[in-house]
From TrEMBL, chain A:
Keywords of the record: FAD, Flavoprotein, Oxidoreductase
PROSITE patterns given in the database record: FAD_PCMH
Keyword Calcium: no
Natural source organism: Sphaerimonospora thailandensis
Protein name: Carbon-monoxide dehydrogenase medium subunit
A single MF term (Gene Ontology): oxidoreductase activity
Endpoints of the signal sequence: none
SUPFAM superfamilies on file: CO dehydrogenase flavoprotein C-terminal domain-like (SSF55447), FAD-binding/transporter-associated domain-like (SSF56176)
Keyword DNA-binding assigned: no
UniProt-listed Pfam families: CO_deh_flav_C, FAD_binding_5
Domain (FAD-binding PCMH-type) ranges: 1-177
Region (Disordered): 244-264
From TrEMBL, chain B:
Highest taxon of source: Bacteria
Protein name: Carbon-monoxide dehydrogenase large subunit
Species of the source: Sphaerimonospora thailandensis
Protein keywords: Molybdenum, Oxidoreductase
InterPro entries associated with the record: Ald_Oxase/Xan_DH_a/b, Ald_Oxase/Xan_DH_a/b_sf, Ald_Oxase/xanthine_DH-like, AldOxase/xan_DH_MoCoBD1, AldOxase/xan_DH_MoCoBD2, AldOxase/xan_DH_Mopterin-bd_sf
Pfam families xrefs: Ald_Xan_dh_C (PF01315), MoCoBD_1 (PF02738), MoCoBD_2 (PF20256)
Signal peptide bounds: none
Domain Aldehyde oxidase/xanthine dehydrogenase a/b hammerhead: 22-137
Molecular-function annotations in GO: iron ion binding; oxidoreductase activity
Automatic annotation (TrEMBL), chain C:
Domain spans labelled 2Fe-2S ferredoxin-type: 2-78
Origin organism lineage: Bacteria, Bacillati, Actinomycetota, Actinomycetes, Streptosporangiales
UniProt source species: Sphaerimonospora thailandensis
Full protein name: Carbon-monoxide dehydrogenase small subunit
Transmembrane region(s): none
Keyword field: 2Fe-2S, Iron, Iron-sulfur, Metal-binding, Oxidoreductase
Length: 286, 802, 158
């Protein structure tokens, strides 16, 4: 199928992009890698009047190693994220989850920021952003605005970006030593969206869980932080003797899983429990 | 000359590949013609509705738009899409206008079209067409559709036909039967999903019409389009250029083919239509969709007395080319490879407001094989035998061939013992059974299951007299022509229409042997009614088993003509002239002529036998006496994660017997692909409609096809029991894998879950469905335990009070 | 209408395109490079895979304007002077194609996957091709072909 007509603009700087976006009106859309947007356009499920292609805005691209965080530019491709030594060293959960996104060709085009700004709860990166408490950086003509991940995913496909704002990237906190990570994705075929996914980060010491961050993919209109699990898992033995499983039993609490072609809500809730347990085990490396 | 090796049997690399791996392809959508216009169809968003208003005026004014048509514009000339298989005297074949005029009966039915200067503008103008609908009740469930008071798809009601077949005394077989297995299986609706979407290019010079189409059936299509549109057959040429897979889905006369012809006739300009995938999922005919009730009566020792089958087959909204015949192709296969005294088959075709169903790889036979092979596993459990043992006790022994089955087919040859023994050895059956027992003992959350499928199929469609007796509208012969060119190379014209099967290569091998010419010196022409005037095309694993034999016969005629010329030139009697390796030799002498020399001499025609027509070319049309019956044993081991319900195929072994093999590489490829599609039905694929009759699986993101990452490597091997009914000894290989694989996988899943009380999992066995089945069993088990406890308590009380 | 400059299979083109034109339509309909087919509209099937600046992309999910100033290699640009790329030969040798519709994309995806992993395991091959669907082969021979192609490419580059 074929997209409907739109105007197109390809700014070469962020300032120019903001200016174009500001002029283009409410129905303008930012085009990043296009791997989510183009299928929507082709199926005529979206009719933007203008696409602002930020593919040539160099400022949006790249990964920077800061003292307490890693900054990942919005236009950094999945492919680049997966191969980044900085990301793999300081925020391996991002690399692990990104490696499960779609397929290699899509990862060559698809971008880190595009995935977050698309705010699809079935996407793999939003739950990771939530689990890691990323700070998302949005720029407008007024300047930068820091949006904590917990506030970024407003609703289904609805990020907390104002018209005229562009996602610049995200600050991914360096969690420091002692943390283990895992992204557990359950999908029916390799390139299918996650039926449910679990992003987990666990800090252990002496065989005990000190702290855990758990967030769920496709368990509601937005990614969901499994706060009950996080509380329940604190202080339990990081082993296979059942306490992690017990904590994981609460994974679906507070979630509002969708029912669709691929799974009904009760099955998703069940999967969330099973997969959370597995993610915790893997993050604890036991 | 060095000793030539037989070409038949060699793993020749394919001649077809050169252009396919370099991109020098000729897909229908590649075609660009001067002045060509592009067609886009507007499709019904309603499953069932009356069309109350069509307004195309706004669309006519859109940029680049040349014409816009609604159904009324074609009403006088579009005819009705054909159904060539009126299976019973009283079958209801509703009028099927290519473009809906007054009523729509499935989502996706064409209701209007735009013809524009490019495909983008055509797509844009669709938005400007206004259509009003008055909704009617959708009809979605077959059982409900047949119930009193159901809304109807057509005025005549929802039943298309009931077809019955019986042999032996089924009442006797079931009377006092020690064991009766009674199961209902769901053959879910599938979307064939050939990788190349359909495409049509139609053109005319005002007198003659040419239609390029991504079709499996250029010859049948020409006949049918002539009958449907009134364009005389001799002025219509149909070309199937490179065709990217079919699997039955391109065995059809489609609305778009008819309409593109009508549009080009009306506008006088060439037109192209290319389907998008989401359009295709809606409107390429679907496959399967049957509700199968199968009952097996057996002795305590597992021997089958009789099989009874009651089938509901979803026709969808209309009967297309062979829609009602598809379940009947399975009617003679529910007995499988087994002996029994009685068989009873009833099939009712039901209309629903969905896309029509029609042939999909195996067409009727996978469904039949699934039901009987699933039932055999259930029988094994019931009588306490290993599932392979119960099959052994029932199957036709090698020594018993030829064998006329209870369904009336004569299986000419087969060796189920050999294929099974080979498969068991490759699989490591006993070791896997031991591991299974161990996992059961350990209550491993990941359980191991083993699935068996010992299948046969009827291939080589088909003896024309059998087709006639089943009321099919045409014959089942195939045609070939062999032309010796003056320079000694050979041109073959075949009536088969390959779309991935490798006929060019295989036919070259057959001709190379038959005429003693180099493999490289043979070319094959196909898929164009102007150059290949006669054929029945490619489907039903028929091309080699029927078309290949026609080719052999044509080669024989060429050889005999050449022998006469050779004898004349060597001044010998034709009876004294031997032929081998491309040379004619006078017996007992060294005098010889090559077939190439004979070809040149015949071309020159200076010195030919008295009255000899100066050509070696020959044609042959072969009509088989019988079907062919490939068979095999497929074994599948799965791991089922009982926590998530996910199934992983751990190993898959297939030993097939397709008779003699022309090219083992091609056969192996066919088997691989067939297995993948069979597994896909078992695990992944289903066309899902919602309660309003909207198809939910319109894209490949929703209709899940397995990728390389979702399938294991397959271990394949062959046994070779030649067919006795044709000179090549071949049986056909196109559908075997698909037919065998589905029950093997589901049997394995059910086997894995037997300790949990699971007796069936509906296809596709998605993780959720497996999980839900386990949940339900767990609930039932708990209820049973509670009842047992209560009973015991009750008894105790009674005992106490007594 | 934006003007784009694209090098396709070694030849430079300068063309005016509608912003919405998909790269694959630009290749097929504008340049006549019909070796790259289209199999779906959701970037699932991978039939339209080409190399864009050396990396595999699905040309149905890239706008032609996004390909401005880039270099595209399609299946038609892989062989030169009649010499097939080792991966094309490997697909032929291993009978890794039947109808051939997915083949161009499959071959280009395979070549791309070897850039990161020149000697992949069977599992890595299967994972690496997860975005390219084939309906004919069941993938067994495709995996074999990629392994063979990897071997031959290793020899030629060493």
């Amino acid at each position: 199928m074929i997209p409907a007509s739109f105007d197109y603009s390809r700014p070469s700087s962020l300032d120019e992009a903001l200016a174009v976006l500001g002029d283009a009106g409410e129905e303008a859309k930012v085009l990043a890698g296009g791997q989510s947007l183009l299928p929507l356009l082709r199926l005529r499920l979206a009719y933007p009047t203008t696409l602002v292609d930020v593919g040539r805005v160099a400022e949006l691209r790249g990964i920077a190693d800061h003292a307490d965080h890693v900054f990942i530019g919005a236009m950094t491709t999945h492919h680049e994220v997966i191969r980044s030594p900085v990301v793999n060293e300081h925020c391996p959960l991002v690399a692990l989850a990104t490696a499960t996104v779609a397929d290699p060709a899509v990862r060559h085009r698809g971008t880190f920021g595009g995935s977050l700004a698309h705010a699809d709860p079935a996407g793999d990166l939003p739950s990771v952003a939530l689990a890691l408490d990323m700070d998302l950086v949005a720029r407008s003509s007024l300047g930068d605005r820091i949006i904590p991940a917990a506030e970024f995913f407003v609703d289904y496909l609805e990020p907390a970006l104002e018209p005229g704002e562009i996602l610049v990237g995200a600050r991914v906190p360096k969690l420091g030593p002692g943390w283990g990570f895992h992204y557990e994705k359950f999908h029916r075929t390799a390139q299918a969206w996650a039926t449910v996914g679990v992003a987990a980060a666990v800090r252990r010491s002496n065989g005990t869980v000190e702290e855990a961050r758990v967030a769920l993919t496709n368990m509601g209109p937005t990614p969901v932080r499994a706060v009950t699990v996080e509380a329940a898992v604190r202080g339990v033995a990081a082993d296979r003797n059942g306490s992690l499983r017990e904590a994981a039993e609460q994974a679906a609490e507070g979630a509002d899983p969708p029912g669709d072609l691929h799974a009904q809500p009760d099955y998703r809730a069940h999967l969330a429990r099973v997969l959370t347990h597995r993610a915790l085990l893997a993050a604890c490396a036991v | 000359m060095t000793d030539t090796m037989s070409e038949v049997g060699r793993a020749r690399r394919r001649k077809e590949d050169a252009r396919l791996v370099t991109g020098r392809t000729q897909w229908t959508d590649n075609i660009q013609l001067p002045g060509m216009l592009h067609v886009a169809f507007l499709r019904s968003p309603m499953a069932h509705a009356r069309i109350t208003r069509v307004d195309v005026s706004a669309a006519r004014g859109r940029p680049g738009v040349v014409a816009v048509f609604g159904g009324a514009d074609f009403a006088a000339e579009q005819g009705s899409l054909p159904c060539a298989w009126p299976v019973t005297e009283d079958v209801v074949i509703p009028d099927h206008p290519p473009m809906a005029v007054s009523e729509v009966r499935y989502v996706g039915e064409a209701v209007a079209c735009v013809v524009a200067t490019d495909r983008y503008k055509a797509a844009d103008a669709l938005d400007a067409i206004e259509i009003d609908y008055e909704p009617l009740e959708p009809v979605l469930d077959m059982t409900e559709a047949l119930a009193e008071g159901s809304p109807t798809v057509h005025e005549s009601g929802n039943k298309a036909f009931t077809w019955k077949f019986a042999q032996g005394d089924i009442g006797e077989a079931f009377r006092d039967a020690p064991v009766v297995i009674d199961r209902t299986f769901v053959q879910q609706r599938l979307i064939p999903s050939a990788m190349e979407p359909r495409a049509v290019v139609a053109q005319t010079d005002g007198d003659r019409f040419t239609l390029h189409s991504a079709t499996q059936i250029p010859h049948i299509l020409r006949v049918m389009l002539a009958l449907t549109t009134g364009i005389p057959e001799h002025r219509l040429r149909v070309i199937a250029p490179d065709v990217g897979g079919g699997f039955g889905s391109k065995l059809q006369v489609t609305a778009e083919e008819v309409l593109c012809l009508l549009i080009t006739r009306r506008l006088g300009r060439p037109v192209k239509w290319t389907e998008s995938r989401s359009e295709g999922n809606l409107t390429v005919h679907h496959g399967r969709d049957q509700l199968q009730r199968i009952s097996v009566a057996a002795e305590r020792d597992g021997r089958i007395r009789g099989v009874k089958v009651d089938l509901l087959a979803d026709m969808g909204a209309y009967l297309m080319l062979v829609t009602p015949g598809v379940p009947l192709l399975g009617a003679f296969m529910y007995n499988g490879i087994y002996k029994m005294d009685a068989y009873d088959f009833t099939c009712t075709g039901v209309f629903t407001t969905k896309m029509p169903t029609d042939a999909y790889r195996g067409a009727g036979r996978p469904e039949a094989t699934y039901a009987i092979e699933r039932a055999m596993d259930e029988l094994a459990v019931e009588v306490g035998l290993d599932p392979m043992e119960v099959r052994r006790r029932n199957w036709i022994k090698h020594s018993e061939f030829p064998y006329t089955t209870i369904a009336g087919l004569t299986y000419d040859s087969g060796n189920y013992e050999a294929a099974t023994d080979r498969a068991l050895a490759l699989f490591g059956y006993d070791k896997l059974r031991a591991e299974q027992a161990d996992r059961r003992d350990r209550r491993d959350p990941v359980q191991l299951g083993i699935g068996i499928s010992t299948y046969t199929e009827m291939c080589g469609l088909a003896p024309s007299r059998v087709l006639g007796s089943l009321s099919y509208g045409a014959g089942g012969w195939e045609h070939a022509e062999v032309r010796m060119l003056p320079t000694g190379t050979v041109e073959v014209v075949t009536g088969t229409s390959p779309h991935g099967q490798g006929h060019v290569t295989a036919w070259s091998q057959i001709v190379a042997d038959a005429l003693g010419v180099p493999f490289e010196d043979v070319s094959v022409i196909h898929g164009d009614t102007a150059s290949s005037h006669k054929g029945m095309d490619t489907y039903g694993s028929r091309s080699l088993a029927v078309g290949g034999i026609a080719l052999v016969q044509a080669c024989e005629k060429v050889r005999e003509k050449a022998r006469q010329v050779a004898a004349h030139l060597m001044e010998a009697s034709a009876d004294d002239v031997e032929f081998s390796d491309g040379r004619f030799r006078v017996r007992g002498t060294t005098t010889e002529r090559t077939i190439q020399e004979i070809a040149l001499a015949t071309f020159a025609a200076h010195d030919l036998p008295e009255g000899f027509e100066p050509r070696l070319d020959a044609q042959a049309t072969f009509d088989p006496d019988n079907f062919s019956f490939p068979h095999g044993t497929h074994l599948c081991a799965v791991e089922v994660d009982t926590e998530t319900g996910a199934t992983t195929i751990r190993s898959y072994v297939a030993v097939d017997d397709v008779g003699k093999v022309v090219n083992p590489l091609i056969v192996e490829g066919q088997v691989h692909g067939g297995i993948a599609q069979g597994i896909a039905q078992a695990l992944f694929e289903e066309a899902v409609y919602d309660a309003e009759g909207n198809l939910l699986t319109t894209t490949m993101a929703d209709y899940l096809l397995p990728s390389a990452a979702d399938l294991p490597d397959f271990v394949t091997d062959r046994t070779e029991t030649p067919a006795t009914t044709n000179p090549l000894g071949v049986k056909g290989a196109g559908e075997a894998g698909t037919i065998a694989a589905t029950p093997a996988v589901v049997n394995a899943i059910v086997d894995a879950l037997r300790p949990y009380g699971v007796r069936d999992v509906r296809m596709p066995c998605t993780p959720e469905r497996v999980w839900r089945t386990l949940q339900n069993r767990a609930l039932q088990n708990r209820a049973l335990q509670n009842r047992a406890l209560q009973n015991r308590a009750l008894r105790n009380e009674e005992g106490a009070s007594a | 209408m934006p003007r784009i400059t694209v090098k396709v299979d070694g030849i430079s083109y300068e063309e005016d395109v509608e912003p919405r034109m998909l790269l694959v339509h630009f290749l097929r309909d504008r340049l006549g490079k019909t070796g790259t087919p289209i199999g779906c509209d959701t970037s699932n099937c991978g039939s339209c895979t080409v190399l864009m600046d050396g990396k595999s992309v699905k040309s149905c999910s890239v706008l032609a304007v996004q390909a401005d100033e880039s270099e595209i290699v399609t299946i038609e640009g892989l062989s030169s002077d009649g010499n097939w790329h080792p991966m094309q030969r490997a697909f032929h040798e291993e009978h890794a194609l039947q109808c051939g519709y997915c083949t161009p994309g499959m071959i280009l995806a395979a070549i791309d996957l070897l850039k990161d992993d020149p000697d992949p395991s069977d599992d890595a091959i299967r994972q690496g091709l997860e975005g390219n669907l084939c309906r004919c082969t069941g993938y067994c021979n495709i995996v074999r072909a990629v392994r063979r192609g990897a071997g031959e490419m290793g020899v030629t580059t060493r």
